[in-house]
Structures are given as C-alpha cells and as structure tokens.
Amino acid sequence: MDPRKEQLIGIVGGENVLDDHLTLEAYAKDHSFVLPIKPWFVVKPKSMTEVQGLVEWANETSTPLVPVSSGPPHFHGDTVPSVPGAVIVELFLMNHILNIDRRNKMVVVEPGVTYGQLERELAKEGLRVTMPLLPRGNKSVVASLLERQPTTVPRYNYSLTEPLRDCGVVWGNGEITYTGEAGNLSYSLEEQWRAGEMQVDPKGPAQTDFFRLLTGAQGSMGIVVWASIKCELLPSIRKLFFIPAEKLEDLIDLSYQIQRLRLGDEVLLVNNSQLVNMLGKNDDRIRALKEGVPSWVLIIGIAGRALFPVEKVDVQEKDIGDLAQQFGLKLQSEIPGITDNEMLEVILNPSDEPYWKLKYKGACQDIFFLTTLDKIPQYLKTMYSVANAFEYPASEIGVYIQPQHHGVEHHCEFNLPFDPKDAKETAKVKEIYSKASQEVIGQGAYFARPYGIWANMVFNRDAQSTIALKKIKRVFDPNNVMNPGKLCF
Amino acid sequence: MALSRDVYREFEDIVGRENISDDPAFLDSYAFEWLAELVRPNQSHFMPRPVAVIMPASTEEVQAIIRVCNKYKIKAKPISTGWYHWAAPLKEDEDTIQIDLRRMNRILEIDEKNMYAVVEPYVICAQLQAEVMKLGLNLNIIGAGSSTSIVASACAYAGPGPSSFWMGNNSDNLLGMEWVTPTGEIIRTGSMGSGSGWFCGEGPGPSVRGICRGMLGSRGAMGVYTKCAIKLSDWPGPPELDVKGTVPAYRLPIPDNFRVYTIAVPNWDAWADISYMLYDNEIGYIFHRQFNLAGADLGPALWLTYNDHTKTLGDIEELVEKPEIQELTEEMRISFQFIMAGRSIRDIELQDKILDQILAETGGWKVGRFCEQDMAEFTNMYLQRMGHKHLNFVWAGGYLGSWMQSGTPDWVKDYVPIAIEGLRRDAASGQLVQCGGDALMGCGSQIGGGGMTGLEQFVSYDPADSDSIAAGTQHMVDAVEDAVSNGFPPGKEQLYLQVGQKDEEIWASLEKSAQPTIYHFQRKIKEAFDPNNIGDRMYSILPADKS
Amino acid sequence: MALEDYRADALRCTRCSYCKWIPLDLVKSWRFSKGCPSIEYSSFHSYSAGGRLVTALSLMEGRSKVTDQVIDSVFKCQLCGNCDVTCKLCRYDMEPLAAMHELRFKLVEDGYVLPQHKLVMEGFRKLDNMLNKPRAQRGDWADGLQVKDLSNTKAEVVFHAGCRYSYDSDLGQVAKTSIEILQNVGVDVGIMGKNESCCGGRAYHMGYGPHYRKAAEHNIEAWIGAGVKTVITPCADCYHTFKRLYPGAGSQIEVLHMVEFVSRLIEEGKLKFSKSIPMRVTYHDPCHLGRQGEPYVAWEGKEKKIFGQAVVYDPPRPRYNGAQGIYEPPRNVLRSIPGLELVEMERIKEAGWCCGAGGGVREAYPEFSAWTAGERIEEAKSTAADAIVSACPWCERNFIDATKQNDTKMKVFDVMELVQQAI
C-alpha cells in the first residue's frame, strides 16, 4: 500500500480514505472552466482532532489539501485542486449541529451541516438562519458563509460576513484557535456554554479578526471545524410582494429607500429570465412563464415575528406601499403565472433537484461581483453588449441583484445558461465569461470573491493587497499546503 | 533620547518647520494623559515624552515619516483626538515620535445614496453627524462621544456606542480604509484597493482588514490609518438639530416619530429579559444605560441638578436627602435610556405598543420624571449627539472604567453583583467617589441587531489627590482579582494596568490566556508587517521563546 | 491668585479636547464646528486650553523652561473663553480660562514679554490708552456735544467710551450716538473726556496684572469722586473689565453696555425707530459681552469633597459658563429696527467664534488676528447676510480690516450705528 495512504488511514480510518477512480474523477473537476486536476486521495475526517492530524501530516509531507464541505455540483473551481498530488478533505461526516440556543438565537454547526438539515432542526426551536438564494440542498452552511455568499435578508446584514460569527479552525500550520469571543476561552465548547458564553461576537480575539482571514479564502488559510451562526426568529406570518417594472432603472430609487429604511425581510431584484429559472420546473413551465413575466421584479418578503406579528406585517406593507407609490410603482401579490406563496416557497427553501441553475440547459456560468446599486445598469449594458458580440441571446441571461450590508454593497450576478454537450456554445460562454469579466472589472466592478480567472484580474490590480495577503498566508500556512494555487497564492 | 539635529531635519523636510516641534513643554502636552497617574511611577501624570511631535497633512507625508522612522528605528505613535494613556509613547527607553494627525481633518466624500462617508483621522463624529444629517443620514457615535475620531474608533480601537443596536458597531460599519503600514506601504483595503471605490471593506479573497483590528484595534501600534469609509444609517429626524435650552442643559425637541424613554426594571434578571425581548422585537434606535455613569445612588440628583444652570455640583449634597429624590433614585436604580425612531407614524405607534407589551411581560416601567418633556428632551439631545461625554469626569476629574467584559445579557448580569460589591468595598474608605457601588454603564447591544452587551463601572477618583489615585489603582487590581476569582476574564482595567507593566508581566498574563497561540500569530503578523519594530507594544504579542 | 492655585486644575484635566470645539450639541457643520482659534491656527496641543494647563504644570514641576515656543503658545490666544464654556459643559471643578490668565501673569512677572506688548504697555503707562495715541486727543470724539465733564462735576452715570472709540475715527460715531440717546431719555450722564483712562482690561489680558490693577483703582476712585453709580459703555472689552474684574478691585458701581440700555428703552417704549433699514444682518456676539459678560459674583471659599471624592466648593463657587451672557438685548435691538432681517450664524451666543482681536493678539500676531476675523467673516457670508454687526469696537475694527484684506462686500456695523440710522 502507498505509505501515504497508510498514514492517512492512521489518521481518519480505513473506510474514510478513498482513491478509487470514480471518486477521484468526481473531484478532479467541477462545472467551472478550471483545468481538471485529479487529487491523490479523498479523505473524510470526523473530528477536529482528525482534521488537525491531516494538516500536520500535510505539512510534514508537503501535500496540498483541498477542503470541501458541500456536496456537488460545484461551480467556482475552488474545490478542484490547482496542483497535482492534492488530497481532498471532505468534511461531510462532520455534520453535527452542536448547539442551538433559542434565547441567544445562536447555532453552532460543523462544516458538513447543510441548509436543508439546519432549517429543519432550527424550526423545532422557532428559529431559522438567513439563507442565500436557492442554495443546493447539499450546500454546506459554513462553506457558504465563509465564502461570503450573499444572503437574502439585507436587514440582518450588519456586516458582509453576517450571519457568520465564531469559528474553530485548524490553521494551515496545524495549530488550532477559535475566532471571535470563543478565542478568549477554553477549547471546550461545552465549557463555554456552561459558563454562558455563546460565541456571539465574531470580532477578535485580541487585535485580529481571525475569522475575516478565513472568509473568501477558498480554504487557503485553514479548515474550519465548527462555526457559530446568528439565527433569526422563525416568523409566524409572512407575506410576499412583487414590484414589477420594465427597466431596472425604475426600481433603483425604490430599492435604495427600502434598504435605507430597513424594510422587508427578503429583498432581491431579478430579471425575467432569472425569475423563470428560479421557478421553472420543466421546459413547458419555463416557456409558459416567459410569456407573461415582467422584465424586472423587485421581490420583497415581509415577516412578522415575536410580538404583534400581524401588525408588524401590516405596518410594513403600508410603509412599503407608500414608498412604492412615491416612485409610481405598485405592490402586487402576484404576477402572471406566479403567486406570492409560490415565490415564498422558492426563496425560503433550498433548491430542489436538479439544482435550479442547471435545469434549463444543463450548465450555467455565473459572473458575480460587488458594486453599488447605481452602477449596475452600466454593468448590465456591458454584459449585454459582450453577449451580443458573441451572439449569445441577452434574453437568456439571468440577472440577480442582492442588496447587502443594509444596501451599501450589492451583489450583482449574471447567470449564463448553456448546454455543456454543445461544444460551440460552451466555448462561446467561456469567451463571454472572460471578456465580460474583464470589461466590468475595468469599469469598477469589485470581484471580492475572486474565483478562477478572476483571481489574476483582481490581484493584478491590487499589488499592495496581494503582497499583504501573501505575508498573511505565510503566517498561517507557511508551507502553503492549504489549497495552493487559489487566489494569489 | 533627543533626536539628533540631522534626523530632526529629515522629519522637518517632510512637513515644514512649523509642523514639527521638540520643545519640551510641547512634548509634555502629548506625554500628559488621563490615566497615566494610575500606572506611572510616583503617580506621574506624564507618560514618557516623545522625541518630537510631528503633524503631517497628507498620506504621502505620513508615509515619508514612517520611512524615516524605519531608517532610524524610531517608534511611530499616531494620535488623533487622543483618549486614554496608551495614546502616548509607552517606554522611557524607546525613542518615539508622536504623529499628531490633527491636520488631516477633511470629510472627503459623502455618498448619500450608497450611505457611506470617507473621512480623514481628525474628523470627529459631531462634524460628520452634522453634515450627514442634512442628507437624512446618521452614524454610530461611540460611547466615548462625538469628540472622537471616526477613523480611530473604526480602525484602531473598539467601536460600540449607544446607537450600535440599530446602526452597528464601528467595526462592522468600517468599509474600506487606507493604511500606511509600519514599513511605509500604503494599503487600501477592500474595494478601494481594486480601484472600485470605498464601498466595501472585505476582500478581495480573505480580508486584509482582518489583521488591522479585531475585538480591539492596534491602538496606534501598527502604522497609521489615514482614511476610512464609514457606513451610515438612516436618520428619520430633522436635517438640522434645533437645539434649545441653556448651557449646559441643551435639549432637543422630540419629533412625532420619535420616543425617548428612561426605562427601569425591578431586578437584573428582568434587565436581561427585557434586553432579549428588545432584540427579538427589533425595536429601538438608541439603547444604552448611560445616565447610570454617575452612580445609581447619585445619578438622579446629578441629572436634575445638571439640568438647572443655576445649580452647582455641591447642591447635590442636599438634593439626595430629599424624600422625592430618594424615591426617584430607588425607582430608577436599574434603568437605561431607550430611544425609538419610526420611519412613519404608524411604525412608531406600533413600536410603542410593542414596548408597552415588553414592559408588561418583564415587569419594567417608564420612569415618569425622566420621561417628562424637559428630561426627555435632554436625554434626546445627550444621546443623539453624545456631546457631553466629559461628564465621565464630572465628579472629581478622574474616571477609570473597570469590568466591561462583553457577552450575552445573561452572562453579563452574572457579574453585575460582583462588580457592584467590589466598587462599594473599594470606595468605603472615601478615597473614591461613593455612588453606591452601581456605576455601571453600557450599550444595550454593542453589535447591530442585539446579542451582546457589556457594563463598565465608572470609578471616579481625584487625579490631584495622591490617596485617591492610589485607591483607583488598587481598585483596578481588585477588579481583576474579583473577576478572575469568580470565573470571569479580567475587564477593561487590565488594559489600563498593562500600560504600566513591564513586558514580562504582560507576557505572563498573555501566556495564561486560554489560547496563547493567538498572540504568537500576532507576533508573526507583526514580524511580517513591522520588521523594524517601529510600532510599540500596544499590539499584543508573545515572544517566540514563550511558545 | 497664583499659578500654583491652578495646579489641581492642571492635574484634573483629562485631555478630553472639548476645549477645541464649540459645545458639540451645537455643531451644525464641519466648517463651523471649531471653537478655539488658537489651536485651529497653530495645531499643536499646547495651543489649546488643555495644552496650556499642561504647560503650566510642566513649568511648575520644572520639567521644562519658558522658551520662545512656550511664549508663542501662551500668548497666541485671544482668551476668548470658548474653551471655558465647553470645558464647563461637564466640569464644575475646572477654570481653564482663569488658569490661562494666571499663566500669562506669571510669564510677564518673570519677564517673558512680547516686544509688541511691551510697546503697547509703554504707551499705556505714559498715555493711558492702548493705542499709543496722545492723551490730549482722547476726548475729541465728543467735540460738539454738550455733556458733563466728570473731571470737574458729578453725575449719576459715567459714559466710558473706551480707547478704541476714543481714537478710531471710523468708529467714533457710536460714542456720539450713545450720548445723544442717553441725553434724550434724560439720563444724568457725564464723561471723563480727555481725562478718561483706559479701563486696563487689555493690559489684564496681556498678562500685566499690576498695570491693570493700577488702572482699575484709578478709575474707581475717579468715579467715586464724581458721584457715579452706573458706568455705561459701548465697548464690550471695557464692559467685561468693569463688570467682572473691577469688583475684585473694590468697585460697587453698576455696569451696563449700551445695547442693554437701548434694549431696555425699546421694551419700555421709550425709544422708537422711524426709519427702515432694509438689510439682512447677522449678529456677532463679542466674547466680552456674550459668554464673558455674565454677572460677577463675589466668592471666597475653598474646595471641599463630598461623597468621598466629589469636588465641590464651600460656599458654592460661581459658575461662569456662559449661561448668563448678554445675548438677547442686542438681538432685541436689531429685531426692533424696521426692515432689518436678522439671521444667525451657526456659532452664536456662548459658542460664538472670536473676532480675533482680544488677548493682545491683534497687537502681537496681526496675521493670526486677521485670520481669525476672516474665519468669522466667512461664517457671516454663509448666512447670505449683507452685514455683520457687533457691539464692540475691537470686533468692528478687526472685521473692517478683514473685509478689506479679503476684499469682500460684507459690511460691518456696530449695533449703535444701525440704531442711529433707524432713529
């Protein structure tokens, strides 16, 4: 037996070291355009101790590790090895919900916990966690938050990293610390809970926001083995409204005001293609929806929770209605083909199978970045212009705009569906992806999550941050075993 | 050691002759710091003198200064509005140049639509608030008040304030920042580094700002922050504050869509319960236990006296004996200030209804006298602008904050009786102001949306009285012991004490921390970013030989 | 008092820096938030009240010596008192303005004097005025007026013109108008004319304590000799000196500023305006009439502690915090003038920005003085006012010079000049 395999078995157990062809093939690539590279092994640790063992081993043997906590399909290339000889650290077995605290509205989870799983358990305690839009059922909550995937309730975004709070992390050098207030206390979470410490504050410890070094890191700093997450109360009443418009520009001022006044729970802006793809269960349905759906829709969910929930919804509905009226817009409970309940069902839950972005054509390339809302029309124009230049129908492009951080940042996402079996179309989308990314970045789009080809584009523009990040990397992962080749590492 | 003339001239060439000085009296004005007397030898009010004070006007000048510091291994200590003794040089045997950022005082940009402002270090909260209120916006003003630098609180220190419950902690409100590192590089964090503007402080990839500040910032020990973008919030009030009243008791009329209350609860369990219910129901614009800084026994008398400009502090002696004041004192023994702002009249009416229900369920009540127009308008003025924060020093000139450990309301309430008993015990000798033991003040929530609080004892001592100073110092030592012996981590007082400790003492306590690896990581970060060690020990590390 | 008496103040200063700003509640903009001209101009902390307290402490403890920079930091200050107001917003135990005065007294006593001040004081000694003008010309402003000469007769009221009104020919009309008004309503008023002596106030502010004292004693004696019960003056500097300093030298004479008197006349219906002045004006509160124009309260007492360490005074020490300054009377007067529209600057009343002339600054630091005035003119311009109006000749002169230097169209008036135009 390969001595490395023996060593790995010694750490995680024989049944948790995989090197069969099929498994390795599955991890060699994803839905992105990154070059496939096969890993050597896939290992499945079950505990922090085993994870630490793996990282220490990786340092001793100079073996790259690629942490993965979500199930497939993957889309950004961050879970595909960038160098040969890597070991995939698959964290699915670490799928325990360690603690739910209703009073403090906190939950502590391991990285293998998915949104579906978490929602079910939190609901029993009258809680939920703010979700991204239609995550995969097997999407790791921790991974999503670490990658700063936008969540749909901007009102709770006091920081772009919310609702992520503290983490337990095995750093790339094999040392373990806890981030946030958990780092001020013993390594036993149970002891912390007994003492009344609920891992609420993400800051620190000391003078470093260690958790911020993990966010957006694509697993290149360390492996998070648990995370505490801020929850919301489960609403007892919900309503949802559509505010349609012909042009995105018509919704911008209203959206700004909604954010400023912290109205609504779920607030997002989508174009008709996006809406159709979110709701479409099959081709017929998709075709039917496309007929009547307005060009643009601002979707706003209103929730009532705790005391006087009905009145809370009522007041918000009236306040939003007044606001919409000021901009010549109207709240509607339905739009052609789509009811409020149906929309709620969609945006409050993970995607069903197959993953919604793949339903239409089988594949989808995303381009997403952060911006301010006022600049999005310009990026839209650019996107359409590039698509047209390559004869890709602009009407196929799904656009999703997610206000973040109380409306200061906006996640702007373009989804380009394509048939992966059609080589020409695939090549076309690949070109569009590259060209459009370059153009919008030149116009000021901020790729805060620089996956794949974006990494060079971003880091070539920001020399000082690149130098700083490399210094930071050398502190926490001096031997560069953690997902080398990602970002600027 | 004095700067050689050659080195002085190198600095002078950067800023011009009129913007640098090594006059001893001038240097003393930077060495003199509040709290120094508690920790310095012989109760000296002076921290070590800088070798010079220099005032740059631009980021480029700051960069040039830092490069000269690297060249000659001179420590660089930036100061803006300056609060706490650690703003000064720390060691007698370290040559430190004090970089006074006073001339960097511009508001560079206010983006109303996208709700952020970009400021230089000497822009104080009051200035920015006045400007953004004209646009219907507001900012979180930290607990130390509106005379403080926004850059300092967001980048280099802490960041919570009475409005953090609604507007967030300034750590979360920090968007991009411009950082002159200890080696003189200029890093613009977040979107600014990519040339995309100031609006995002995270990324690209992992956030570099993660090494700039954590629970606390570097307190001047890791280069200089020369700009930052700060997130703003909505202000549903008038564009200009229509201040009424006679100095010092300015008052701010309360618009129809606001409510201003002082709320009391019967016990500390109820205080925790009410906090949780307010968090759950998401009502409240400002939430703070502010007025108790004067001490629960004396507070009501002080505030009523303060609001009468014909009265002086001595009038309180008689006032506290009056039956109606004693009644009021008991009524508001465990109380806090709570301001709600509605985006509409229907919204504020609903918030009022929710609050009343919360009070009914927790046994709380609105303190009648403090909800009357005069005191409510005073409360409104005080908390909206936070312009009276040198009231921290009202009793005797000196105040030190002890305790202030942060955690959930349930956790914090558990240390309250220990903190109260500790102050009562330490003030019994009469060398500290005797305000009853409970002078605990703090944010309803230090972070946006609720969840975390912390209460700070306001311990008042006379910095002109040697015995009183000694009592203050002893209280800090006692407070550490009280906390640790009861299973709590040391509080704010440990930070104060550390300024007077030797390196070895500090390292010993860091070694005893639950996860000393943190401080080894910080050492490595410092080695990477400050190889010439021009930042002082306010950035905490453990040396390699302690690992 | 001695500098040592302010050691406790220095030790109790907490470097909160409120002394650099106007009361923060009153801040309406970034531009006009600043309260202290000295630190705005010179930037080092030593140029603030808090910084000067440290200077005092540093000198007292022998940690430093008086250098040119120290002298500059001590004297480059108008002693406008804004710092005092803001400090006392929350402090009952601090007297930063008084401490800064004491620091000047000490420096002057020890021979650290500015050559420009030395020159002025030589004139003061020889000529009894602050402008180095011939004594004989002092009463020329009253030429043509039939008014009692109190050097050889008696009256209930002495009208004290002051050095600036006596010698500044651009401004002298104010004094004349004042006499006319007083006489018209039957006040038994006289003047000292060419025998009028400087109040000594500016000497006090420059740190020449004994010179001031001599002037005070001389004037008080002269007034008592003339049977005077009340002194009325149109000069805020003199007003402050008589009201707040002279009682310490034994004066029991009532003190009024002309604007107070005129305001009273208007309220009693004894003065009516027949002409309209269609103009938009803004009023500048002179430091010595406004925040430093509060009533004098005699006090002798000591510090005591209550509640363990809370610092109070026995008997209670008067609290000069700007609350009772003379703010409304000049405004009443202006509002009563037909056609006049009064608009307010951002920094008014106790928070008013200094005109720049006080504290010996105009004499010793003309650029700084002009800059300070220029800042105030900018603030006036921000109200879209046609004119800035004050009630002090030193303010008026400084503003006139600033408008000329900055080439602005802003007009400068004294309240009494507008009163005269409107009668």
Commentary on this structure:
The complex is a heterotrimer of chains A (489), B (547) and C (423). Chain A is of the alpha+beta class. Chain A folds into 4 domains: 3-90, Uridine Diphospho-n-acetylenolpyruvylglucosamine Reductase, domain 2; 97-233, Uridine Diphospho-n-acetylenolpyruvylglucosamine Reductase, domain 3, CATH 3.30.465; 237-347, Alpha-Beta Plaits; 361-442, GMP Synthetase, Chain A, domain 3 (2-Layer Sandwich). In chain A, 36% of the residues lie in helices and 20% in strands. Chain A has 17 helices and 19 strands. Chain A has a 6-stranded antiparallel sheet with strand order 12-14-13-18-19-17, with helices on both faces. In chain A, strands 5-6-10-8-9 form a 5-stranded antiparallel sheet. In chain A, helix 9 (272-279) runs antiparallel to helix 10 (283-292) and helix 14 packs antiparallel against helix 15 (423-442). With 547 residues, chain B is of the alpha+beta class. Chain B has 5 domains: 5-102, Uridine Diphospho-n-acetylenolpyruvylglucosamine Reductase, domain 2 (2-Layer Sandwich), CATH 3.30.43; 107-234, Uridine Diphospho-n-acetylenolpyruvylglucosamine Reductase, domain 3; 242-387, no CATH class; 390-497, GMP Synthetase, Chain A, domain 3, CATH 3.30.300; 501-546. Chain B is 37% helix and 17% strand. In chain B, strand 12 and strand 13 form a beta hairpin. The mean pLDDT of chain B is 97. In chain C, strand 7 and strand 8 form a beta hairpin. In chain C, the strands form 3 sheets. Chain C has a 5-stranded parallel sheet, with helices on both faces. Among the domains of chain C are: 1-112, no CATH class; 115-267, Rossmann fold (3-Layer(aba) Sandwich), CATH 3.40.50. Chain C is α/β, with parallel strands linked by helices and 423 residues long. Chain C has 18 helices and 11 strands. Chain C has helices at residues 7-12, 37-42, 49-60, 68-75, 82-87, 96-109, 115-127, 163-167, 173-184, 201-206, 209-225, 236-245, 258-267, 328-336, 361-364, 366-381, 393-405, 415-422; strands spanning 148-149, 157-159, 189-191, 230-233, 254-257, 279-283, 302-306, 310-314, 340-343, 387-390, 411-414. Chain C is globular. The mean pLDDT of chain C is 96. The interface between A and B is large, with 97 and 89 residues.
